[in-house]
Amino acid sequence: EHQKYIRNFSIVAHIDHGKSTLADRILEMTDTVAKRDMKNQLLDNMDLERERGITIKLNAVELTYHAKDGHDYEFHLIDTPGHVDFSYEVSRSLAACEGAVLVVDAAQGVEAQTLANVYLAIDDDLEIVPVINKIDLPSAEPEKVRKEIENVIGIDASDAVLASAKKGIGIEDLLEQIVHKIPAPSGDVNGPLKALVFDSVYDDYRGVVLSVRLFEGTVQPGDKIKMMNSGSEYEVTEVGVNSPNPVKRDYLMSGDVGYITASIKDITTTRVGDTVTNANDPAEKELPGYREMHPMVYAGLYPTDNAKFDDLREALEKLKLNDAALEFEPEVSQALGFGFRCGFLGLLHMDVVQERLEREFSLDLITTAPSVTYEAKLTDDTVKEVENPSEMPDTSSIKQISEPYVKATIMVPNDYVGAVMELCQHRRGIFDTMEYLDDYRVNVVYHMPLSEIIFDFFDKLKSGTHGYASLDYEVEDYRASDLVKIDILLNGEKVDALSFISHRQFAATRARDIVGRLKNIIPRQNFEIPVQAAIGAKIIARTNIKAYRKDVTAKLYGGDRTRRMKLLEKQKAGKKRMKAVGKVDIPQEAFMAVLQTD
Ligand code: GDP
Ligand code: MG
């Protein structure tokens, strides 16, 4: 029957090992995409993905493979991101599949995210098909990498596919292995509909488009469906698959991966991880769904134009459909007005959210410096969660502040172990273990404050090891630290959005650094601006931004009103991403100044 010829699989790997390029070759080999429409990393279809050369979103496509046994197989391939900030996309993709193609770079070997991602797949009981990619590289060592896959990951790699996604080598071998190794889906086609929502996106015309994997039953236009979690019901308007462009189908059935639209305009009723069933013949139990993701970092997002607050709310709600890990709630800043405190999985995630809001929803935003969530134990023994440094209670009412610690796993050639340890130590890391993976590669484990890792740690790690180190981390627990809140005052006024938390030991140096940096970032105005950093009432660093000597416009354009207007217009445009706080204009960079360390 139908399901026997279906194979559902995700492609997983460490970033840059060639997942998206391998997907290209598969699309080509199976004539899914016409030669003239082919382009590199075709599935990275978001502008942002193409510009940055990374995959941000999972992407599911259907293709047909004519196998050597003479049968046509229907493949559903899901390309996934490799970066740690987007591992939620990977775990959701895996839940829709029976197998995972694990790509390992023949020159780089197993790296931190290789392990993290393959373990997600193993936890889900997926069949793993290992591929050793980039064998065309002069530095490729496929046999060594084969052993590494066996020793480090612990899976059989004796018949791992040797491939070059770039040169198109090994692709047929891979497709055959997918047919023979990955099991066909096995759900009951005649049972009540059970479809897992693994992604969604808002479309202005069609409403919410649900990406689904059917585990039981069938669905077709006209069916009345019910979202098991929210209880809301809709009539299906269209079903189909992406190939890679959307193609309508008469129906989807158990084993299929595709999309459903049902004129869903109320975006609050659908949630990734929910189960879609048939309202007239409902399933008894919903599918397991996904574990909730907890944001690692929080930052304030404010429209540069205060009137755009409602637009920002609507944009966040729509974006959340396509970015299930995003969290937000309204907040008010004395300095910045009305905005949202948003939770992200990391700084890249935060960056991507801001960019998508600006591009896809035409907003101009100011982002405040990201912060982890602290726990303040108060003198009355209650514990307050602090997601925004400016909300840290007064020192007099705090017994103890705790911060999140992560277990950081760093894989690195042994030549660089010293550099890695020095960096970790410098960032308040506590050494755990060091283990040789083979003759020259080492796995170093540290316990570190999350706040020390999320900012520029990864960049420092890469530059300190000539790009050879790879990093993975997960939050372990909260530990008490000697932390203080530092406030920044401009022109004598506290700017709440610039407050930050620092370890007491580094407070004075960081305060001096930041005050100095703000001096360079904040444009001069026609009066002198004192810049101060304070712990409570105590000023610990200060400087001044000198005033302009003369009013430039008055001198140059004194008489000519239109030219003067033009100049003001220009200045206004240049002021985008600037926020007037009191009498001082603060540019976006100022809010990020507290992030830089060195
Ligand atoms: P992803 O992050 O895993 O999706 O990796 P990409 O598919 O975006 O590829 C990362 C980089 O590796 C790109 O510059 C590709 O051109 C390159 N690449 C991918 N596969 C191969 C290969 O087989 N050989 C060589 N030499 N380069 C490859
Ligand atoms: Mg990719």
TrEMBL record:
GO molecular function, one term: ribosome binding
Keyword field contains GTP-binding: yes
Species: Lentilactobacillus hilgardii (strain ATCC 8290 / DSM 20176 / CCUG 30140 / JCM 1155 / KCTC 3500 / NBRC 15886 / NCIMB 8040 / NRRL B-1843 / 9)
Family in the record: Belongs to the TRAFAC class translation factor GTPase superfamily. Classic translation factor GTPase family. LepA subfamily. Belongs to the GTP-binding elongation factor family. LepA subfamily.
Membrane topology designation: Peripheral membrane protein
InterPro entries for the chain: EF-4 (IPR006297), EFG_III/V (IPR035647), EFG_V-like (IPR000640), EFTu-like_2 (IPR004161), G_TR_CS (IPR031157), LepA_C_sf (IPR038363), LepA_CTD (IPR013842), LepA_IV (IPR035654)
Coiled coil spans: none
PROSITE patterns per UniProt: G_TR_1, G_TR_2
Swiss-Prot/TrEMBL keywords: Cell membrane, GTP-binding, Hydrolase, Membrane, Nucleotide-binding, Protein biosynthesis
EC top class named in words: hydrolase
Recorded catalytic activity of this chain's protein: GTP + H2O = GDP + phosphate + H(+)
Enzyme Commission code(s) on record: 3.6.5.n1
Function: Required for accurate and efficient protein synthesis under certain stress conditions. May act as a fidelity factor of the translation reaction, by catalyzing a one-codon backward translocation of tRNAs on improperly translocated ribosomes. Back-translocation proceeds from a post-translocation (POST) complex to a pre-translocation (PRE) complex, thus giving elongation factor G a second chance to translocate the tRNAs correctly. Binds to ribosomes in a GTP-dependent manner.
Keyword Hydrolase found: yes
GO cellular component: plasma membrane
Annotated residues for binding of GTP: 16-21, 133-136
SMART domains named in the record: EFG_C
Tr-type G domain sequence ranges: 4-186
Subcellular localization: Cell membrane
Protein name: Elongation factor 4
GO BP annotations, alphabetical order: positive regulation of translation
